[in-house]
Amino acid sequence: MQYEIKGETLPVVICRLENGEKMITEGGSMAWMSPNMKMETTTGGGLGKAFGRMLAGEKMFQNIYTAQGGNGLIAFASSFPGSIEAFEIKPGHDMIFQKCAFLAGEEGVQISMFFNKKFSSGLFGGEGFIMQRFSGQGTVFAEFDGHVVEYELKAGQQIVVDTGHLAAMDATCKMEIQSVPGVKNALFGGEGLFNTVISGPGRVWLQTMPISNVAAVIRPYIPTGN
């Protein structure tokens, strides 16, 4: 499989497949394709895994596209202004993504739920409580909100992230939720009550425009019914 990512604000990834190669995606992600791409809808490993994907922000069913009778082309478009990033998943090199990040991937990539082990993350961590874990072998494409900035953390090195800005991280990284110090800072600082702290070793990807922040900004301008 060869691919290219085009566009900046509303990107698309165009994949060129050899005969017999497969791509897995959610319903609605396909933008255009060659006529010889065959689609098959599946639960992706049974109802248990399908339900797990639903809890992680994805749809229960997946579509598998196969190039038949020769090479094929298929494109997957972003659903929100932002970025599409490609990641190589290998055995022993799992990755953790935010909810709803999965766009498409090669057949050998497996998706499962990732639960933060700390209970406080579930209460206060927002999007960080249930995330997506990617394992197996192959290329996976993820869509993030806004632009993406990558950092590589050494063992013990940390970065403090406002909730919602964490897009992805290596599975070797650890995350926990910490309260903002100081009552005045927490109540009047405008940054919320809690931050997410990511610890290395591993790489972390941060997004500049979480869709939850966008929704909060435009909410006051949406007319409400009487």
Which tags fit this structure?
Double-stranded beta-helix; 226 residues; mainly beta; six-stranded antiparallel β-sheet
Total strands: the figure is 19
The CATH topology corresponds to: Double-stranded beta-helix
**Rg from Cα:** 19 Å
Strand content: over 45%
- Strands of the widest sheet, in order across it, are 5-6-3-10-13-8
Name the structural class: mainly beta
**What's the rounded overall pLDDT mean?**
83
- Fraction in helix: 10-25%
End-to-end Cα distance, whole Å, is 54 Å
Major beta sheet summary = 6 strands, antiparallel
Number of helices: 4
- The stretches of 5 or more residues where confidence is low (pLDDT under 50) are 119-128, 183-190
Number of domains: 1
* Helix/strand order: EEEEEHEEEEEEHEEEEEEHEEH
Kindly provide the name of the CATH class. Answer: Alpha Beta
Known CATH architecture: 4-Layer Sandwich
Overall form: globular
CATH level-four homologous superfamily name: Mitochondrial biogenesis AIM24
What does this structure look like?
It is a single chain. The chain is mainly β and 226 residues long. It has one domain (2-219): 4-Layer Sandwich (Double-stranded beta-helix), CATH 3.60.160. It has 4 helices and 19 strands. It has helices at 47-55, 119-124, 183-188, 211-218, and strands spanning 2-6, 12-17, 22-26, 30-33, 37-42, 62-67, 72-77, 82-89, 95-97, 102-106, 109-115, 130-136, 138-145, 148-153, 158-162, 166-170, 174-179, 194-199, 202-207. A 6-stranded antiparallel beta sheet has the order 5-6-3-10-13-8, with no helix packed on it. Residues 119-128 and 183-190 have low confidence and may be disordered.
